[in-house]
C-alpha cells in the first residue's frame, strides 16, 4: 500500500466548487443512487438496456432507501475534499441500514471489485452486485463487515461516534467522518457519545467530524431531533461543545455548493485547530470542533408521491418506496422513470463500467474511503512492545502463604506498556482505574481530559492517555474503534456493570466472527476486558453489584472468538494478560477481584498452568496419582479457588487417606470439547484431570449453568456437581457470601463426601463438623445483626473467612 | 392511607422563605447531614453524649459523603414546597450512592421507624441505624429497595430520568423530582433520557422536575458537565427543551433563599403549564419544562482541608473524607468537630428523637416523600380490565393447517386493553410497533409525541399513549417506572437488540427479588417483555440481528422472578399474554416471531397446554402411550417447533412403527426442578413427558446451553441432545438458517434415529434420505449464489422451508 500523505503535506485551502467539479461530483452521486436503487429492486437488466419488466424485479424487496441518498451525497463531497487536500478520511455510516449506499461507493471506487473479484466492474458484475444485496447467500441490508471501508456494523444503532473517537485517538493524520442519523441519535449510547470531544487532544489525536443527518423520520414516525426547533438542535450541539454548521434543502445544484462550502469550512477549522495545537500556539482550552447539521428530505431524489400519498420527505421513504413493483404496472413504470432520472447512460458505459466523468470523482489509491487501511486496521497493526511480565511476579515461597491485591501487579505491567508503547496502547475505564488497583499507570500517563483542569486534580491533563469516562458504552466503544484501526488496549470495569455494554461485547464478537470468513480482513488486536470488583467481594455494595453474567454471554459466541480467563492469583493474571495482549481478533474476558487475596503459584508454575489452561494442584490435594481419586475438587475463579483449597486442606487434615484431587481451571474454554473450541482440552487431557467417572465437585465463580453447558458432551457430564453464584447476594461479609451461595469450604467438603466413590471412615463425623461450622456461622449472622462488636470481629478476622 | 390532595386543591403560590421556615429547613438539613455522617462512621455514642473515642468508630469505613449534603438540601426544600402546596412528590436520587442521605430523610420523617419498627426513633434506634449502614447484615451503601420512598436503585447509574418519566405517565397529580448527578450524567442511558419531555403530555401526565446536581467530581476525577463552561451546560439543557434555572454557591443562608426561590419558580412553571393544558388554553406546542442546575461543592459542609489537602469541593470528598479516624487522633478530633458543627443538641432531644424544630420540616402523612404510595406502587395498583383473550383466537381446524402472523392477534388484544384501561396500560416499543405486527393498537391510541406533528404523520399525536422512541433504554426504563408506580405495560422489541437493555432487565429482576423479602413492599405489575423479529427469521438482516441471548440472562435470576415463554403459535401467545398481564412482580419474557407461521392448537388446547407449561402433542407423534417411546422429540420456540413437527411427520410417514413422542415446551422454567423454580414440573410430570431414560432430541429456540442448564439435575440429564442457535448466522433463507444451525427437520430425524432406544428397520435408508435432502440443500445454496432464478424459488417456496 502506498504511504499516505501526512497531514502537513496536504493543501491548506479548499477552493469553491467549480462547474467541472460540480458535474463530476453530481455524476458520482447520481451513479451511487442508481446503484442503491438497483440493489434494492433489480435482479436483471441492471443498466436498463431494455425496458424494465416484472421479471427484472427481485421477488422480495428489501433494503433502506430513505437514508441512502444523503449518505452518498456526503460521501461524494468528502471524496472531493480528499482529492483537493490529500486528507486521510475514514467514513462511518451511523444510519447503517444505508448499506447499499456504501456498497455502491466501494463499487464506484473500484474497491469492491478489488476485494471481491467476482463482482466485476461491468454489466454482469453490476447484476451480481444487485442480486447479492439483502438476499440469500448475499450481504446484509446494512453496512457490515463485508463492506470495504467500514469498521462499523450498522445493525445495532448507537455506536458510530464512539467508534469514530476511538479510531482517531493517537491517529493524528486521520479524520473520521461520522454520519449520525436522526434515528440513531435517539439511542442512549449515541447521545452519550457526543462528549468524545471532551477527551480529544488536537495535537496528538486526529479529529472526528460528525455530520448529523436530519431527514426527519425513522421507521414509522418522526424523530425527536428532526422535529425539534432547529434552534434547539443547534443549542444542544453547541452545548456538547461543537461549532455547528448548518446546511439544508433539496435544491440542486444549490445543495452541492452549500455542502461543499460547509465541508471545506469544517475541514479548515479542523486544520486550524490542529495547526495551532501542533505548532505550540494553543492555550490548552478545549477546541470547539466543527460539526455539520445536514437537513435533506428522507428519500431525497426518490418518488415524491406514490399512490396519491406523499413519499419523499416522510417515514414512508424509509425502506422501499415502491412496494409492489412486480405486481403493479404503475409502480414498475415509476421505478423505471426514477432509475432513468439519474441518466445512467452518462454514468456507465455500454459495458457497465463507470464513465470517466464518474471515475474522476474518486480519490486515488488508499485515499479512497472504501480502501483506507484505517478501515482494515490489521494492516496497520504493530504488535505491542511488551515488557517481560515475569518482572512483575509475586514471590510465592509456598502456596497460600502470601496475600496481596493481584490487580496491582497488572497495573505495574500496564504502566510499563504505556511507557514502551506511547503511540498504540490505552486503558479505558469508567472512573475506576485507581479503585481497581491499576493506579500505577498514572506513573506513566495522566488521565486524558480536554475540559478545564485545576490544580486540585490528580493525574489529569490534556496529554493524558488513560481514558476515564463514567460510561461503559464510551469506554467499550472507544476501545473497539481503537483496536479496529490496529491499536491495542484494555477495558477494565466492575464485573456487574459489564452488562451495561454486554450488547457491544456481543456485537463486536459477531464482527470478529464474520471477519474470520473474509481473508481480506487482516486480524486486529483483541478486545481485552478485565472484570474486577467481582460479585463475591461486593459484600458492602450489595446485590445490585453482584452479577457475574457477562461470562454467560461470552461463552455463547462462536467457537474461536470468545475466551474467558479466571486467573486465581497475581502470577496467573500476569501470564494471562501477556497472552491476551499478544493475541489478535479475540474477545478476551479476564475475571479477577481487586481485594487482597491468597497467592498460590510461582511465576514459573503460573506460566505452565496458564499455558495448559487447567491443571492439578498436587500440593492442595491428597491424590498421589497412583490410583483414581475418590473425588475431584475443581475450581475456576479466585474466591472459589480459595474455598476449594481450604476444603481440600480440611479433608487432608481430617481424613488423610481420602484421595482428593484439586483441579484449578484458568481458561474456562478448556472445558469445552476440542471440536467445539480451539482451547478445548482433548479427551485424554480432560480425563487425566477429571477422570471419566469420578464425581467432580466444581466451585465456579459465575452462574453454575455456565459450567454445565461447557462440560456438556464430556464423559458422564452429570457427575459434575457445580456450585457457583446463585443470586444469593446482599450486604454482608465475604464469607457469608460463599455460605449463602453454598460454595463455602464446608459445603464443598460435604459435597465431596456425599459424592465420593467410597465413604471413608470418619465421613459422618466430618460432615457433622462442617454442619456445626455452618451453624456457628448462622449464629454469627444472627448475632451480628444485633450486636455491634461483631462488626469489629468481622473486619479483624475477615468474617472468619480464613 | 389518607387520600392525597389533588393538584387542584393545592395552593398556587409559594411564599418566600421566612426566617422561621429557614430555621426549620436548615435544622432538618443539618439533622440529615448529621445522620449521614453517623451512618458512615459511628457504631456507638450516636449523639456524642460523651467525647468521641476510637471505640465509637466503625472498623471499616464505607459510604459516600460527597453527594449526600446536596441530596439532603434538595430534599429539605422539596419537603417545604410540599408543606406549602400539598403537592404529591416522588424523590428519585440519581446519585444513588448517596444512600445514607435518603435513609436519614426517611428516619427524620418517621417513615423508617414505621417501616422497620426495630429502628426506633431514639438513641438506640439511631445507633442501630448507623450500625446497619453498609455493614454485614445491614443495608447497601446506595439507595435501594430497602429505602422507603424509593423506586430507584442507585447501584447501576443512568436510569433516574427514565424512571421518573415512566412514573409520571398517566399520573397527572405527581411531580417526580429527579436528582441527576454529574457522574451519572456521563452515562449513555442518562444522556439519552433527557428527551423524555418530548413525550410528556401536560394535560394527562404529571411532570418531571430534574435537578442536575453539579458538584464537579465523580470517584476519582472531574466530570464533563462539572468542568464545562456553564454557558455550554445551559445551552445543552435548553437544547433538550428545558427552561433552565441555575442556583449555585456554598454561602448560607443565601443558598437556602436562592434554592427555595428556584424551586418555587419551577413549581409555578409546572403548575402554569399544566393549568393551561388542562384548562384548554394550550396551543399544543411542547412546553419548556423547568429544570434546575444546582452547583454546590462536593462534600458541602464537610471538612475543608484534611492532612493539608483540599477535601471539600474535590473528588477526594466522594466517599469517606476522614479515612483513618480510628488510628489517627487528629482525624478523630476533626470528625467530632465536624459532627458537632451541625449542633446536634438542637436537632435531637436527650432521648435521641428529632426535636420539634426538625419535625416541623416534615410534610404530613403520605405527602412525606419517604411515605408516598407512588414509591410503593403496588398499593395503588388496580388490576387490568382484561378482555377475554379467547375472542382473538385463531380458528385452527387441524394442527398445522393455518398460517398467519401470530403477533397480529396479540396486537388486537392489546388494542382492546388500551380501550378498557385508558388510564393504566401502555405499550413501549423502539419504533417497531407496526413492524412487529402490533399495529392494531393504533386503532385505540396514537403514538404519543410532544414535538411538532405534521399532516403526513401516521397515528401520532400529543394525546397518544403508545410509546415509541428509538431507544431500548428509554422504552425499558419508562416501563419500569410505570410498573413500579402501579401501572401495567409491555415492552416489545427485536430479539437481538433486547441485549441493549439487558442490564436493565437484570437490575429490575434484582429489585423484584429483593422486594420479595420486604413484606412492606406491595407486589407491582410484572415487567413484560415481548421479543419478536427473532434470530431464525432475520435471514435478510443477517448476523447482527441474530441473537437470542436475553433468555440466558433471565434464566439466571433467582427462582421466583424470571419466566420465559416460547409460545409456538397465536393461541398459545394469547394465553401466555393474558397470564403475564395478570401477574405481578415477575419478569416475563415472551419470545415469538412476527412472520407468518403455522398454527397448531385451538384456543382450548392452547389454554390447557400453556397452563401445564409443556405437554405431549399426540397428534404429531406416533407414541400411543402404551409403552415407552423410542425417542422423545422436544421443542421450545416457534421455528424449531415447526422443524420438530416436520421431523415427526417424516418419521411417522416413513417409519410408522417407530414410536416418536413430541413434547412442546411453552414455559421454559417448567424444565427446572420444582425445588429450584415454582414453575418447575414435579418429577412425576417430568417423567410422564420425558420418561427417565429415553433419549430426548430437544430443538431449542436459543443457545443450546440454556436447556442443558435447565434440565441439570433431572434424571439422566445427559440424554438430552439439544440443538439450537449456535451462532451460525448470515444473510440467507429461513430454511438455511435451521440447516446451518443443525436444527432442521432432517437433522432432527437423524438425531432421533441415532439416539433411539432401538434401531428400527429402515433407519439407515431414512438417514441416507435425510443426508440426500441436506445435500440437495447444499447444492441449492451453491446454485443460489450463482444463479438468479433461485431467489424467486426461495420466495415462492419459502426456501423449501415447508
UniProtKB/TrEMBL annotation, chains A, B:
Biological processes, Gene Ontology terms:
carbohydrate metabolic process
Q: Name one GO molecular function term.
A: magnesium ion binding
List the Pfam families hit by this protein, alphabetically.
XFP, XFP_C, XFP_N
Q: Name the keywords, alphabetized.
A: Lyase, Thiamine pyrophosphate
PANTHER family attached to this UniProt entry: PHOSPHOKETOLASE-RELATED
Spell out the family assignment given in the record's similarity comment: Belongs to the XFP family.
Its name, as the record gives it, is Phosphoketolase family protein
Amino acid at each position: 500500500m502506498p504511504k499516505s500523505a501526512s497531514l502537513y503535506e496536504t493543501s491548506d485551502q479548499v477552493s469553491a466548487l467549480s462547474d467541472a467539479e460540480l458535474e463530476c461530483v453530481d455524476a458520482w452521486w447520481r451513479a451511487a443512487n442508481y446503484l442503491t436503487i438497483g440493489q434494492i429492486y433489480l435482479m436483471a437488466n441492471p443498466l436498463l438496456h431494455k425496458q424494465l419488466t416484472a421479471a427484472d424485479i427481485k421477488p422480495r424487496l428489501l433494503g433502506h432507501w430513505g437514508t441512502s441518498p444523503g449518505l452518498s451525497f456526503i460521501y461524494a463531497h468528502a471524496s472531493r475534499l480528499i482529492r483537493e487536500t490529500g486528507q486521510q478520511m475514514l467514513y462511518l455510516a451511523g444510519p447503517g441500514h444505508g448499506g447499499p449506499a456504501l456498497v455502491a461507493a466501494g463499487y464506484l471506487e473500484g474497491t469492491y471489485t478489488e476485494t471481491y473479484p467476482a463482482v466485476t466492474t461491468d454489466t454482469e458484475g453490476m447484476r451480481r452486485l444487485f442480486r447479492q444485496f439483502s438476499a440469500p447467500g448475499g450481504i446484509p441490508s446494512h453496512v457490515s463487515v463485508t463492506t470495504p471501508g467500514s469498521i462499523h456494523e450498522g445493525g445495532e444503532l448507537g455506536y458510530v461516534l464512539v467508534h469514530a473517537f476511538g479510531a482517531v485517538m493517537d491517529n493524528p493524520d486521520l479524520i473520521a467522518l461520522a454520519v449520525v442519523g436522526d434515528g440513531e441519535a435517539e439511542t442512549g449510547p449515541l447521545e452519550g457519545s457526543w462528549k468524545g470531544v471532551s477527551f480529544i487532544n488536537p495535537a496528538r489525536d486526529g479529529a472526528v467530524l460528525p455530520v448529523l443527518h436530519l431527514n426527519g423520520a425513522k421507521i414509522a414516525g418522526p424523530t425527536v431531533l428532526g422535529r425539534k426547533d432547529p434552534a434547539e438542535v443547534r443549542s444542544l450541539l453547541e452545548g456538547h461543545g461543537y461549532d455547528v454548521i448548518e446546511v439544508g434543502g433539496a435544491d440542486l445544484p444549490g445543495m452541492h455548493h452549500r455542502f461543499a462550502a460547509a465541508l471545506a469550512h469544517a475541514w479548515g477549522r479542523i486544520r486550524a485547530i490542529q495547526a495551532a495545537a501542533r505548532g505550540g500556539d494553543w492555550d490548552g482550552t478545549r477546541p470547539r470542533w466543527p460539526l455539520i447539521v445536514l437537513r435533506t428530505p428522507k428519500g431525497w431524489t426518490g418518488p415524491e408521491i406514490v399512490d396519491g400519498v406523499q413519499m419523499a420527505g416522510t417515514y414512508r421513504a424509509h425502506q422501499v418506496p415502491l412496494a409492489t413493483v412486480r405486481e403493479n404496472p404503475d409502480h414498475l413504470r415509476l421505478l423505471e422513470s426514477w432509475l432513468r432520472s439519474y441518466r445512467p447512460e452518462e454514468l456507465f458505459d455500454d459495458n457497465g463500467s463507470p464513465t470517466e466523468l464518474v471515475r474522476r470523482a474518486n480519490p486515488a489509491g488508499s485515499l479512497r474511503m472504501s480502501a483506507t487501511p484505517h478501515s482494515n486496521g490489521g494492516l496497520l497493526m504493530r504488535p505491542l512492545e511488551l515488557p517481560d511480565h515475569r518482572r512483575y511476579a509475586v514471590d510465592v515461597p509456598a502456596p497460600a502463604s502470601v496475600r496481596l491485591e493481584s490487580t496491582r501487579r497488572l497495573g505495574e505491567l500496564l504502566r510499563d506498556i504505556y511507557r514502551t508503547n506511547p503511540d498504540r496502547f490505552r486503558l479505558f475505564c469508567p472512573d475506576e482505574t485507581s479503585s481497581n488497583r491499576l493506579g500505577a499507570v498514572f506513573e506513566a500517563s495522566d488521565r486524558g481530559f480536554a475540559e478545564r483542569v485545576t490544580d486540585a486534580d490528580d493525574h489529569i491533563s490534556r496529554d493524558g492517555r488513560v481514558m476515564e469516562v463514567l460510561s461503559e458504552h464510551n469506554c467499550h466503544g472507544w476501545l473497539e474503534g481503537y483496536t479496529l484501526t490496529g491499536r491495542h488496549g484494555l477495558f477494565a470495569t466492575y464485573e456487574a456493570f459489564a452488562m451495561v455494554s454486554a450488547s457491544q461485547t456481543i456485537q463486536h464478537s459477531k464482527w470478529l466472527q464474520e471477519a474470520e470468513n473474509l481473508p481480506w480482513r487482516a486480524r486486529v488486536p483483541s478486545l481485552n476486558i478485565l472484570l474486577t470488583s467481582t460479585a463475591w467481594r461486593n459484600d458492602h455494595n450489595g446485590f445490585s453489584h453482584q452479577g457475574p453474567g457477562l461470562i454467560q454471554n461470552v461463552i455463547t459466541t462462536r467457537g474461536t472468538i470468545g475466551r474467558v480467563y479466571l486467573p486465581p492469583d497475581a502470577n496467573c493474571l500476569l501470564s494471562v494478560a501477556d497472552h491476551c495482549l499478544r493475541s489478535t481478533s479475540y474477545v478476551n474476558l479476564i475475571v479477577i477481584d481487586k481485594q487482597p487475596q491468597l497467592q498460590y503459584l510461582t511465576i514459573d508454575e503460573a506460566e505452565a498452568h496458564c499455558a495448559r489452561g487447567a491443571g492439578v494442584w498436587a500440593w492442595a490435594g491428597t491424590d498421589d496419582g497412583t490410583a483414581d481419586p475418590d473425588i475431584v475438587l475443581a475450581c475456576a475463579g479466585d474466591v472459589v479457588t480459595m474455598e476449594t483449597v481450604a476444603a481440600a486442606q480440611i479433608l487432608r487434615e481430617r481424613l488423610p487417606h481420602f484421595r482428593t484431587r484439586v483441579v484449578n481451571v484458568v481458561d474456562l474454554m478448556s472445558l469445552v470439547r476440542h471440536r467445539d473450541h480451539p482451547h478445548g482440552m482433548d479427551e485424554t487431557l480432560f480425563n487425566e484431570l477429571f477422570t471419566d467417572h469420578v464425581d467432580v465437585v466444581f466451585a465456579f465463580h459465575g452462574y453454575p449453568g455456565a459450567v454445565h453447558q461447557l462440560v456438556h458432551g464430556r464423559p458422564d457430564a452429570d457427575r459434575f456437581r457445580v456450585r457457583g453464584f446463585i443470586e444469593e447476594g446482599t450486604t454482608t461479609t465475604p464469607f457469608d457470601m460463599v455460605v449463602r451461595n453454598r460454595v463455602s469450604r464446608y459445603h464443598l467438603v460435604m459435597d465431596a463426601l456425599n459424592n465420593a466413590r467410597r465413604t471413608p471412615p470418619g465421613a459422618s463425623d466430618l460432615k457433622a463438623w462442617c454442619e456445626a461450622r455452618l451453624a456457628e456461622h448462622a449464629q454469627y449472622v444472627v448475632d451480628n445483626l444485633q450486636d455491634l462488636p461483631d462488626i469489629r470481629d468481622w473486619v479483624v478476622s475477615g468474617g472468619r473467612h480464613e
